[in-house]
Amino acid sequence: MKGLVLLASLLAGSASAHMQMSKPYPIRSPLNKDSKGEKDYSYTNPLQASGSDYPCKGYAKDEFESQATYKQGSKYTMELEGSATHDGGSCQLALTYDQGKTFKVIESMLGSCPIDKKYDFTIPSDAPDGEALLAWTWFNKVGNREMYMNCAMVTIGSDSKGKQDSAHKSAQHTVEHANHPNHPNHPNHPNHPNHPNHPNHPPMKQAGPPKNMEHEHEHKDLVHQHEQRDMTGQMKTMSFDSLPELFVANVDQAGKCVTIEGEAVNFPMPGDNVVGKAEGKGYKCESNAPFLGAGDSGSSDSSSNKTTTDSSSKKTTNSTRSVPSNTSESMSKIASAFGTPSADPRVLNGQSSNSQEASTNNAFSAYVGGWTCTSGEILCAPDGMSWAMCSNEQPVYMGPVAAGTICRFGSIVATRGW
């Protein structure tokens, strides 16, 4: 027994030789003394070259045990522990809500990661509420061609949906229960004061409006609020889903990408937030992959054209989010949830000379690009036939509206109302 304890201690000590995420604690982290599950004392090892433990060292489907709660739009710090930084390299932070099937990049650190060991990141304002995994990946600059990946279980936002659903069901139950003939308060119940057979029943008068009418109106209002919240949630999810996919290499996955010795990876789709700078490309691929972007197989040695900053500052890149393929189908459901729009003085008059150009192609992105907007806000083209959504205070072009709808003054509504 003492021998096993000594062995575990030695393994834990050697784990600090490389790098691992220490805040928040990743799944099965040996650093997490409060975790009740089993520990992985080889946690700083890279993923298997075969990809057998991608993603998350094979732990993405462990029983959920949240290590942190993050609010949309708020800034947090991720910390690393270890000593062997392999002359740095490039890292990414990403979120997944489906146990590692898809990862959406929220931060890219180029060139000197993980030398600093502490990195700030912001949870996107359009990130859905719920249980998620925060993934940290690292491609070392020197040494073996490897991919390091740690994933922590985190809670995004506040799970208010369950409470609202309960309130909705409670209100519905109250109305239905009160309307049941066997309920004591129902007019047809023998013990009800207004029942004809009740001994204290007063002389019958002409029946007025049902007493439960007010409850029915409250119930309809709750249902409408519930539908509006669900539609807004769908819209936020669509915007979040347009974030780029996590870059993957050296683990025999899509694209068959490998990194290049001595070069830091210059991610082809780094996302909205980038820290640092990488010279060259740093990778090559055999085929296309979602994280490479349209028309980029990764085989070219030319560097990517994107704006970055040094490690002491951060700014938004020139990358544009892709539009989900199911936008029109989802929008046909979303449109009915919005009420009467209000005027927006930023929208050009429909007769303006550049109205048609701004409404029919990606010039709309430039049209709204200079606007100041609020995250979650809808921005309409002059003719109302295409739209953008504000994410992290920047417009994201979403494409044409669904058939039978039109975008007007910050809302998408049925065309019959215009």
UniProtKB/TrEMBL annotation:
Residue ranges the record marks as coiled coil: none
Keyword Signal: yes
UniProt keyword Zinc present: no
Residues spanning the signal sequence: 1-17
Compositional bias ranges of the Basic and acidic residues kind: 31-41, 160-179, 212-230
Region Disordered, residue ranges: 23-46, 159-231, 292-357
Ranges of Low complexity composition bias in the record: 297-320
Keyword annotations of the record: Signal
Name of the protein in question: Extracellular protein
Organism (species): Penicillium argentinense
